[in-house]
């Protein structure tokens, strides 16, 4: 009997990403004694459990409001800010729409995408593979952040002052371009350095 691993997240809400006590209670009660739960730095829980019962467990977890995603080499669910300026001003619905479109896409290496509703950047967007910062009613997109290793790097500005729909389209194009042109296990930051900012700007233009 095999094991299956999947990711669990509570999604976005004003005040941060929060699991409810009843959600964690359900999770702990139905995954089985042999299952393992791992806290990741993607604001997700990885659940590894008996493959035979996994689909039923995922269904029941979804009923509690939890969101289920693939684990492994995929785009991670969007890491949101605390939306401290309020849901509408910080763009909560835009962040949710972006997440629906890009989360769980297979990529050469895991991708972190951060969303910040203002320049405070509580989601640390400049340390993500792709960082989105809402500036008033428009968006700046940064790429190539690298928090790990002995040589951490801040993301650099790819495009500035774009509307919400255009921002989502550009992020989706970045993911697709990395999916098609990245080397196996190549981190996105290394990919950006290899391909160059200029070529990536051309790839997402139009």
TrEMBL record:
Q: Which InterPro entries match?
A: NO2/SO3_Rdtase_4Fe4S_dom, NO2/SO3_Rdtase_4Fe4S_prot, NO2/SO3_Rdtase_4Fe4S_sf
Show where the Nitrite/sulphite reductase 4Fe-4S domain sits.
92-204
Answer yes or no on keyword Metal-binding: yes
The entry's cellular-component GO terms read: sulfite reductase complex (NADPH)
SUPFAM superfamilies, A to Z: Nitrite and sulphite reductase 4Fe-4S domain-like
Which keywords label this protein? Iron, Iron-sulfur, Metal-binding
Pfam families according to UniProt? NIR_SIR
Q: Which GO terms describe its molecular function?
A: heme binding; iron-sulfur cluster binding; metal ion binding; sulfite reductase (ferredoxin) activity; sulfite reductase activity
Annotated GO biological process: sulfate assimilation
Q: Enumerate the PANTHER family for this protein.
A: ANAEROBIC SULFITE REDUCTASE SUBUNIT C, SULFITE REDUCTASE [NADPH] SUBUNIT BETA-RELATED
Q: What is this protein called?
A: NAD(P)H-nitrite reductase large subunit
Q: What's the source species for this entry?
A: Brevibacillus fulvus
